[in-house]
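PROTOCOL LOG
Step 1. Enter all chains and additional molecules of the complex.
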Amino acid sequence: MNNARLLFRQIRGAVRQSTVFVLCVALSVVTLVSLGSFGRSVHSSLLRDARVLHAADIIIKSHSPFSPVLTQAVGAKEQRQEIKTARVYEFYSVVRALDNESSLLSDLKIVEPGYPFYGAVTLASGRIFNEVLTAGSVIVEQQLLDRLHLQVGDKLRIGSTTLTIRDTVFAEPDRPTNLFALGPRVFIAAADLASLELVGTGSRVHYTILAKVRDQNSIGRLAEELGRSAVKDRERVETYRTAGSAVKRFFDNLLFFLNLIGIFTLLLAGIGIQSTLTALLKEQERTIAIMKAVGAGSRFILRHYFALTFALGLIGTLIGLAASVLLQVFLPELFRGLLPAAVELTISGSAVTEGLILGFIVVFLFTALPIYRLREVKPRAIFGKEEQSSLRSRPTWLSSAVSLFFLFGMVVWRIREVKTGIYFILGVALLILVSLICAEGIMYLLQKIQLRNLIMRQAVRGLFRPGNATRVSIVTLTASLAVIFCITLVENNLDSAFITSYPPKAPNLFFIDIQPGQKAALAQSLGSATTFYPVVKGTVIAVNGVPVNQEEEHKKRGDNLGREFNLTYREQLLDSEQIVDGDALYRKEWPGLQVSVLDTVLKMRDMHIGDTITFRIQGIPMDVRISSVRTTTRETLQPFFYFVFPDDVLKDAPQSLFAAVRVDKDNIAALQNRIVADFPNITVINMTETATIFAGIMGKLSAIIRFFTFFSVVAGVLIIVSSIIATRYARIREAVYFTILGARGRFVITVFTAENLCLGLGSALSALVLAQTSSWAICRFALNVPYRPCTAISLMMVLATSLLIIAVGLGASFSILRVKPAVFLREQADE
Amino acid sequence: MIHTLRLPALAVVLGCLLSGCEKQTTPAPAVIPAQTSFAGTIVAVGDSLTAGYGLNETDAYPAQLEKKLQAAGYRWRVVNAGISGETSSGTLSRVDWVLKLKPDIVILETGANDGLRGIDPQVTKKNITETVRILKQNRVTVVLAGMRMVTSMGRDFTEKFAAIYPAVAQKHDLILIPFFLQGVAGNPALNQEDGIHPGAEGYRIITDMVFPYVLQAGVK
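Step 2. Run joint prediction.
Step 3. Record the structure below.
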């Protein structure tokens, strides 16, 4: 190309803008490629995980033997080879060691060959589950061996038969749905079912049919057909997609959130690209005017600048791809333990192609407008007659519309929901509109304010200087800061809803049914600091005199007033609690009985402070007034109580105690044996595995979210830098004039700082309002997690961004101050 | 709701160890009988099987029993002092509280939760014996409801468990209902979806079965 040298010189001449531009392009490519390949592997492994979590495609459950109709329906489908099935029977039974006569309540799982259809039961020996679990053998949890002092190879008396322990089990795929076990797991082959003589009349067994469907597309249809044969309210037919699982819900939320972050980052990077290019072209206006004056046509100019953006875009894309490759070194580390090892996290060719294509679309979309505007540059611009670019011109709207449409396509493509896509686009359009209104509002306020201070007056005037794209800057900053704030707020809310729920030091052993007389002895036996919570059972029989229909309540999905509640008494709030309504836990001035309720209760029924709840506590009705509403600030494994009473109300009521402690994994079996010997009535629930698994997963997820949120923060910083660079030329001139008028460097800096402060604080505050509103809506409606406004974090974000804007502004201004007035003026005169 | 992740564990653990919060299929409740002056007080002490887990209080057996007694001309009050999830240790701990209700007769139905949690039947037996001793000391006539354990717990265990009740009844000369859930346990039509808690119809059968034993206690 004959003007390659010109291109090179232009890039070198505007090295700052070019760098920011390249970085923005690189950032969008990195985000697209890494989120693309991550999303793909997560999506497939998630579906697989959901299936693994249930070990089957279709799951049929019942508390009684399956009805003949359903059994026949299953049999018919099996005969047509549409499905393969494995029956599973689960129940508790007391097993006995053959040698030493000690016995233990165990969680039996009797499985037919084929179980599990998905996932694997991992054994200590590393052998294959189905090969080890043959007739006559059992596979047990290590805990059982420890508690009964047995070894692999020993015999176990179960029901009416004696079986040999062949191995110990580490993990089973469908265990997470069965979190609370009263005893260790024992796997038995279905071949031994009859000889156990445990399943039959009078037994309490959970019956399950697991089905693997041959044609994956027919899962829904088959489940529906089977559902029609099921006895209503007794037999439940579900697919792995419909079966509720908190873990899957979380993964869904995570993926949704990551995709949104990705698209938002793209939007931010796009804004960055557009504003740097605008700045770059602004500086080139004179050159363009000269080119036009010496006869260059609009077409030549457009072609030339397209070549320029293409060159920069290519450099950015290449850097982005290189960075993506580098990232792959870290990604597996980040995702270790979260994704199955089989998931390849290497960059796929399709992800690279996709990244390249999308990268170029982004560059094109966001550069079209500034380049198109070049047509409007008239040769007379040589004489410094500047023309204000307007936000209201048709090309602006057109290019915004096309960009929005592109983003809409991205959302629909990534999230696969048109509705979400529409919400997203409406959201972005609203965001830009509200940012515009905010910008107008800030500008109006600044114009109206009468300032006495010279510095502030100059700063505000500076914002209105010709060529200073204050309005555009505020819109850009407000919109992008709102997005970043919003992401941060949502992330923090997700974090508090899920991740901090599983602190590594969370209690893992729960003791229930402790009788008051045993408290002291148990505390001594458990050692360390054990917290005891008194528990008094009671039901709610009326609210404000209106009786609660237990039966109706009981039919409701989710928690309701139709069950027995665990009431407790204490005089203070727990560390993890906050009062959300009312002045204190209890009202001293109120006569009569009172109770503090957890906010969750208000979801079951609308109640207010001062309302009367009638409890029935062991046969005795009790009217109490609501004195306060509490919320838990951490959704931890710590106990929480819906109703908390003052000491004097419940202290003398019959009660048991509940205790939660953290015990080292290795000491659990010994401790449990000791408790059973000394306190045979106390039941110990061991949640170690659950707590460990969850803590691990949640920690990882937190890291992943932070990692991708970081992209959007980088995009935001780039935008700030680019918007400051955009006004560089005007600032230089201003600094020169100030200096000529006798101002010192310090004065100029103070004026610039004040100016940036107005800009930063104004944008940050309006962004915060926007972010709070939108993140509340996202948490409330899209993610369904409780919302907290995170005041401290919000203020810190406003402060940090204001400081960042000032710092970047100062950084850019120092080089401006170094420009000698005389040199500048001479250059101006020369031109 | 994502609240499921908050682990209703503790609710489950503490509250309804016996069953999840599932739907059930029983018909509408009856009307609360009018207040009258009573000739005596029967306190129905027990676990969820007495409390009427998942049903309106009027459908649980104590309310049905009171109605049946009144219809037969006996002006007895029947207090439902059932606590879901309670073990025999819990019953023993609150016997003083039960005495505050000044019962003439106590129908004692406990131990099922002990069995379901695999607690050594010896412990259950000791608790019931001690509870009975205190009640008798306070001149309360005790009707002991016999219980059996689900067969899936294993024959050794269920035999030891079932033997508790006749042994205690005999030793303390109590009126014994041989099996509280006679004719109801194991019949899906008479139980809620969880398969172990009776529905309203199930309680009607239980009430009819308990009735003569209560009359016998009234004579005593």
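Step 4. Note key features.
Chain A has 24 helices and 21 strands.
The two ends of chain A are 29 Å apart (CA to CA).
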